[in-house]
Structures are given as structure tokens and as C-alpha cells.
Automatic annotation (TrEMBL):
The gene is Cyb5r4. The lineage of its organism: Eukaryota, Metazoa, Chordata, Craniata, Vertebrata. NADH-cytochrome b5 reductase involved in endoplasmic reticulum stress response pathway. Plays a critical role in protecting pancreatic beta-cells against oxidant stress, possibly by protecting the cell from excess buildup of reactive oxygen species (ROS). GO terms for cellular component: endoplasmic reticulum. Residues 13-23 have a biased composition (Polar residues). It comes from the Eukaryota. This is Cytochrome b5 reductase 4. It comes from Rattus norvegicus. Its cofactor is FAD.
Length: 510
């Protein structure tokens, strides 16, 4: 690691003036306060030119960035582009420039070790120093650190591991910000560990036959702003591991997600509850040694053996109910997955699923799908068009919108069904509309009873143009649509007709 000698700080003649009681601050220009800096960092501006990506920085590269308008500094192994921060630094520009293109850890520790620079400079993070840090006392050396660059797409993650007496921690450096617990799937079966990190449209796999036994329970942590994933395994015996284990198939590979096969784990049926005359809420429990969270709007594949043949069908997990008070993601992996599934008496898969007894097992794949919550950024009016079980992806989208979208003014669901009896969670939808004034629901029935005095028919231009009213003239809108394929295709065609662009529409399909 590069180290700047830490004597005389601040330097004689520096902007930073030292008062007898300690350090004083340099007067900052107007509009350069901490609040101004915080506001700027939240503006969505790209401070590194890396579009949210992270790189490994060599000493040679770091040294090149030593000018005021191009100033990189390494602090505790992470490199920041501090040029945008120069004018906001309470200690003045000259002080920052003392560590330009170098490791400023000692300087930093001496002056303001307590400052939460990780948060302050999080948007300025360029990446990690390529140099390996010294091995901390009491920990064994890493078995291997790999770094292969794919020809295109995001740069390859690498991994590393360390141990204490009772635990082994595997660290994946994704080199991407905005990684969260949804991005990691971990399965521990006997002593084989399979950990998949989904990074943009690529998948990084750690697949190892562990050298020693570990306990079933493990924890997964994500350090979002540095793109680091930690999997903490608990040793069965307190022996020192000489190596992590033997590589298994596709270990340490980084390939486009579309080229990876589906991996299944056995989940147990915990409960089954009628929701309508033909639709049930199934609750499946993940194995204790699995970490899997399905991202908003994505689906998984369920696999069952039907008369000796393996049948696979896609299903979209939902929340347990629309009204359970929406909670922040929990730190430990979610253990239950809920599905709203319509049983087709003449269908191939669903009657078999319906015949399962509580305690039976179904195979569940990892998440798939191309819906990204980032599409909803800054959206003010969200319109959801669902037909039949096409309602399922709307459940998590709705949940996300009402809990996480601060820009949201209105979310409207137009729900197409044959009859009133087919409306899934009608009572909950109506309670939700009463509870949250931003939410509205309208039903359209294609085969209503004579008593029905609501909207009737199929998706049409007239129905949509009346429904898709913005809350403000130029409000930012987004539309989601899901149902039988011809419904979705027709809906998207009509939305284009009504001048909505592809960027404003997401059609859920297989
Ligand atoms: P199938 O065997 O596919 O039959 C379905 C119906 O079509 C039956 O009524 C059957 O009689 C009829 N049929 C079949 N073949 C013919 C034929 N040749 N001619 C005429 N009629 C025929 N469904 C849900 O309930 N919940 C979900 O969350 C969900 N999520 C999904 C997510 C995605 C991405 C996709 C693509 C689909 C999703 N589905 C969901 C639908 C699900 O995948 C299945 O298609 C559905 O459960 C039917 O499966 P099945 O094997 O029981 O019926
Ligand atoms: P359904 O009850 O048969 O139909 C729901 C409504 O859609 C009915 O009013 C129906 O009218 C109407 N509809 C059907 N075909 C139409 C068409 N061509 N044009 C306009 N309206 C049409 O639906 P379902 O049995 O629940 O099926 C739901 C579908 O959603 C399945 O195909 C499933 O695969 C799909 N799905 C997809 C995803 C996904 O891609 N992520 C997720 C969940 C579900 P009619 O009375 O005239 O039939």
C-alpha cells in the first residue's frame, strides 16, 4: 500500500489553520456547506465517470490522478475521486491535495478517524486498491484471489476468504455498487457451497466442496456502497482450515445470466389456502441452508415430477398479503415464499401441485425475469394493468411503490377478470385503497353477472384513455401490464397508440 508520511499535518502554509485548541476550518465558499455536498451527492450525478461500476486500482493508476481536477485518494484500501469534493472539504483543498494520487490513510486517521467518510464519499468511490492488504493477525492467508476480465459486460468479481476460530467468511468483491441481498443466492448442501452473485445481466459463481464441516445456518451480509458480499459460515469444529476446499463445476465463473442453467432446491409446502374458487395461496419454506430473495416483479420456476416426467412452470412470488404492514428487507434470508396459483382442472402442472400434501416438497429455481425496480425511479404516476393471475407481479410492484417510491403521487390498478368471483384479493385491494389514498383500483369484467354495474369488456382504447389520467400534466409515468399473452400484446399496442413510449411500459412475459 502506498503510504504518505504522516509528519507535520497540516503542512506549513496550508489553507488549514491550526488554533491552539486544535484544528479550525477553512471558510468555505457560499453553497459549499456539508448540506450542499449531501444534496449534490443525491442528485444522481456520476462522480467517477464509471456509471456506478467499481474498478481495481493499481498503484501506478492511482499515482496518475494527482491533480486538483483529477484527484484520487486511497483511504483504508478504497480509492475515491475527491475532485468533486474539493470545494466542500472543511479542511480546505490543500489538505486533500497532500494525499493526491496516494494512500492518505495515515493522514486521515491522524486528523479525522471518526468521520464517516464511507458515507460522505460514497458517490466518489472508484474501487479497491489492487494490492492485497496484509493478513490480519489470527487469520490464515487467503487461498486464492482471482480476477479474470470478461471480454464485454461488467468486470469480473473476485473472491477471497478468511477465518477466525469459529467462523469462515467468504468475501465476494462484485465491483458494482447497488448490490443488495436480492443479488445473492447461497445454497449449502452437505459440505458443498454454491453462491451466485447476480451482477447486472451476468452471474458470478462460487462453487466449492468445503474442506471441513460447517453448520447449517450461515449469514449473508452486503456492504452496498463498496459492492462487497460476505457469507459467514460457522465451523463445526474449531480447527484451522488450510484451504477453503476444492473447486466444483463452474467455480469462479462469470458468465451472462442467460447462459447459466437453472439451479433448484427442495422447498416444503407449509400451507395452502383458498383465495377464489380456483386460485390458492401456497406457502413454501426454503431449506434452512438457503439464502434466496426474489426481486420485485421477478418469477421462479417450480418443478414437479408428473407421471415420471419432470414438469417445470414459471410462477411469480407475492407477499403473504397486501395488507401486512410493509417492512424493510430483513437481514436474515426470508424463509417463506408465497404464490397465488390458479388451478386449471385440465392443466398439466397445477392439478399435480394442488394434490401435494402439507409437508411435501417442490423444487424451486432461482429468480428470473427482466423487471428492474430502477425503472420506477422518480415515477409519479404508476399504472398497473392486470388480467387474471397476471395480477401476481403487480403485488410486489405495488408493495415496492407504496413503501419505497418517495416520488409516487398515484398508483392505479385496472384489474380484468371474467366474473366477480375471479377477482383475487378483492377485499384486500379495497382495504388498501381505503388505507392509502395514493392507491386506486378498478375492475373490468368480461363475463359479468346481470347485477354488475361496473366496467365491462376487454382491454380497449376507450377504457385505457379514461383510466390513464396523469396527476399532473407532465408527471413521470410508468405502466406495467401482465395477463394472457394476447391481452398483454393488445394492451401494449394500445399504449403505444396512446403515445406512451417503450421506456414507460413494462410487459411481463415468460
Ligand atoms: P396447462 O397444461 O398449461 O394448461 C392451461 C390451460 O390451458 C388449461 O385450462 C388447459 O386445459 C388449457 N390447454 C392446455 N393445452 C391446451 C390446448 N392444446 N388447447 C386448448 N387448451 C389447452 N400462474 C399462476 O397461477 N400464478 C403465477 O404467479 C404465475 N406466474 C407466471 C409467471 C410467468 C413468467 C409466466 C409465463 C406464467 C405464469 N403463470 C402463473 C402461469 C403458469 O406458468 C402456468 O402456465 C399455469 O399455471 C398453467 O399451468 P398448467 O400446466 O397447470 O396448465
Ligand atoms: P383469465 O381468467 O382467462 O382471463 C383474465 C381476463 O383476461 C378475462 O377478462 C379475459 O377475458 C381476458 N382476456 C383473455 N384473453 C384476452 C385477449 N386475447 N384479449 C383481451 N382480454 C383477454 O386469465 P388467467 O387464466 O388467470 O390467465 C392469466 C395469464 O397470465 C396466464 O396466461 C399466465 O400465463 C399469465 N401470467 C403471466 C405472468 C408473467 O408473465 N410474469 C405472471 C402471471 C400470469 P375472457 O373472458 O374473454 O377470456
Amino acid at each position: 500500500m502506498l503510504n504518505v508520511p504522516s509528519q507535520a499535518f497540516p503542512a506549513p502554509g496550508s489553507q488549514q489553520r491550526v488554533a491552539s485548541q486544535g484544528r479550525s476550518k477553512v471558510p468555505l465558499k457560499q453553497g459549499r456547506s456539508l448540506m450542499d455536498w449531501i444534496r449534490l451527492t443525491k442528485s444522481g450525478k456520476d462522480f467517477t465517470g464509471l456509471k456506478g461500476g467499481l474498478i481495481e486500482v493499481t498503484e501506478e493508476e492511482l499515482k496518475k490522478h494527482n491533480k486538483k481536477d483529477d484527484c484520487w485518494i486511497c483511504i483504508r484500501g478504497f480509492v475515491y475521486n475527491v475532485s468533486p469534493y474539493m470545494e466542500y472539504h472543511p479542511g480546505g483543498e490543500d489538505e486533500l491535495m497532500r494525499a493526491a494520487g496516494a494512500d492518505g490513510t495515515d493522514l486521515f486517521n491522524e486528523v479525522h478517524r471518526w468521520v464517516n467518510y464511507e458515507s460522505m464519499l460514497k458517490e466518489c468511490l472508484v474501487g479497491r486498491m489492487a494490492v492485497k492488504p496484509a493478513v490480519p493477525k489470527g487469520m490464515l492467508p487467503k487461498s486464492q484471489v482471482t480476477d479474470t476480465l470478461p471480454r464485454e459486460g461488467p468486470s469480473s468479481p473476485s473472491y477471497d476468504w478468511f477465518q477466525t476460530e469459529s467462523s469462515v467468511t467468504i468475501v465476494i468483491y462484485t465491483k458494482q455498487k447497488n448490490i443488495n441481498l436480492d443479488s445473492v443466492i447461497v445454497d449449502l448442501q452437505d459440505d458443498s457451497l454454491r453462491a451466485e452473485a447476480v451482477i447486472k445481466d451476468h452471474s458470478y459463481l462460487i462453487h466449492i466442496g468445503l474442506s471441513h464441516e460447517v453448520q447449517e445456518n450461515f449469514s449473508v451480509r452486503v456492504i452496498e456502497n463498496v459492492g462487497k458480499i460476505e457469507i459467514v459460515l460457522q465451523k463445526k469444529e474449531t480447527v484451522s482450515w488450510k484451504c477453503l476446499g476444492d473447486p466444483l463445476e463452474k467455480h469462479d465463473s462469470f458468465i451472462p445470466k442467460k447462459d447459466t442453467g437453472l439451479y433448484y432446491r427442495q422447498c416444503q409446502l407449509i400451507s395452502k389456502e383458498d383465495v377464489t374458487h380456483d386460485t390458492r395461496l401456497f406457502c413454501l419454506m426454503l431449506p434452512p441452508s438457503t439464502h434466496l430473495q426474489v426481486p420485485v416483479g421477478q418469477h421462479v420456476y417450480l418443478k414437479l415430477s408428473v407421471t415420471g416426467a419432470e414438469i417445470v412452470k414459471p410462477y411469480t412470488p407475492v407477499s403473504e398479503s397486501l395488507l401486512s404492514d410493509f417492512k424493510e428487507p430483513v437481514l436474515s434470508p426470508n424463509k417463506y415464499i408465497y404464490f397465488l396459483i390458479k388451478i386449471y382442472p385440465a392443466g398439466l402442472f397445477t392439478p399435480e401441485l394442488d394434490r401435494l400434501q402439507i409437508g411435501d416438497f417442490v423444487s424451486v429455481s432461482g429468480p428470473e425475469g427482466n423487471f428492474k425496480v430502477s425503472k420506477l425511479q422518480e415515477v409519479e404516476d404508476l399504472f398497473l394493468l392486470a388480467a387474471g393471475t397476471g395480477f401476481t407481479p403487480m403485488v410486489t410492484v405495488l408493495n415496492h411503490a407504496l413503501t419505497h417510491m418517495s416520488s409516487l403521487r398515484k398508483v392505479k390498478l385496472m384489474f380484468f377478470n371474467k366474473t366477480e368471483d375471479d377477482i383475487i384479493w378483492r377485499c384486500q385491494l379495497e382495504k388498501l385503497a381505503l388505507k392509502d389514498k395514493r392507491f386506486h383500483v378498478e375492475y373490468v369484467l368480461s363475463a359479468p353477472s346481470p347485477e354488475w354495474n361496473g366496467k365491462q369488456g376487454h382491454v380497449s382504447r376507450a377504457l385505457l384513455s379514461e383510466f390513464l389520467q396523469r396527476s399532473l400534466e407532465n408527471s413521470k409515468v410508468f405502466l406495467c401490464i401482465c395477463g394472457p399473452t394476447p391481452f398483454t400484446d393488445e394492451g401494449i399496442r394500445l399504449l403505444h397508440d396512446l403515445n406512451f413510449s417503450d421506456d414507460e411500459i413494462h410487459g411481463f412475459t415468460a
